[in-house]
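Hello again, I could really use a second opinion on something today. My current little project is about how a certain protein chain folds up. You're getting the sequence in one-letter code plus the fold written as tokens. Here's the protein in full, and shout if anything looks odd to you:
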Amino acid sequence: MATVREIYRYLDGLAPFSLQMDFDNAGFLVGRGDRQVDKVLVSLDITQEVAAEAAGLGCQLIVSHHPVLFFPAKSITDADPTGRTLLALAEGGIAAICAHTNLDAVSGGVNDALAQKLGLTQIEQLKQDGVDASGRPYGIGRVGNTAGVPMYAPAFAAFVKEALGANGVRFVDARRPVRRVAVGGGACADMLKDALAMGCDTFVTADVKYNGFLDAKALGVNLIDAGHYPTEQVVVPVLAKWLADGFPKVEVLTTQAHKEVFSYL
């Protein structure tokens, strides 16, 4: 077994929490640090359903990407979804560690997993934000090249949908063959010009606003919005593997209760 604190320190070595962006609230957010853990559940989010799943499985810890507590709480009651989730965790003795923008930025994290899932090669950083205490570069987004005969945006968008298991995608077709692709898991549409500066003809991200599509069309970049969940769910197996490798005596499970929240008609 291991303690919650030991697991937190291990994850901090792989994706330092000090690298999180200013607005973020990643870290050890719920529970007791000395709690012994023999089962951990990994999920993109911690919802009421995930908390109930963890309790049913006998897990003492949930490790997620999105923070279960993002804004300062003035109260924790059963009057709202966040309060009910936090109460379920506390009453069930279940701790929560959430690795968010730090996991987006580090090597091997969200964006490397996304680039690899899309079969990109010669992967490099889209934008380097700095180096960590060990001298390792970090930054949001990745860039890579496609293999084989280049596709155009409609065919590549269909491939992205299939590869990520997305319920649907939205895209702008710039009528350019897809050869060099930037990826930004989650809401990274504001990095469109960074993708262009890196010589990309295509950008895959999520949560694109209307103006983002207009900008892509004007700039001549294929833009594919594949959804927040599909572009970041790719990191759940990565987290599970990290934990299994670091703590072989701890049983690591991945959620079956949490899926994409919306559908397309």
